[in-house]
Specification:
This protein is mainly β and about 100 residues long. About 0% of the residues lie in helices and about 45% in strands.
């Protein structure tokens, strides 16, 4: 593991971790972020839930194509091959 220094301007160099090394947060290490060599994980193992907050939330593939898009107070859209296939509306859903 390569450690780095942090000053008032932020990180001077990246923090590099090898496979299966975890960033753990919380008093009981309730939140873990890591890569196991095959998959990347964000794991919430504590009490409560995992919240992702934002006015627009996108889940995208490595080519930056939409998979899911949720807007605050608006639609949630699901995509297949970057083509919208399902969306919530104020009256129900569109398929």
């Amino acid at each position: 593991m390569a450690l780095t220094t942090i000053d008032d301007r932020g990180l001077k160099t990246p923090i590099d971790l090898i496979d299966n090394e975890k960033i753990r947060l919380g008093t009981g290490n309730d939140l873990e972020i890591y890569h196991n060599g095959s998959h990347s994980h964000i794991s919430d193992t504590g009490t409560g839930g995992l919240k992702v907050l934002g006015s627009d939330i996108y889940i995208r593939n490595p080519s930056d194509q939409d998979m899911i898009h949720a807007t605050s107070g608006g639609a949630v859209k699901a995509y297949f091959n970057n083509s919208e296939k399902f969306a919530t509306t104020n009256t129900g859903t569109n398929v």
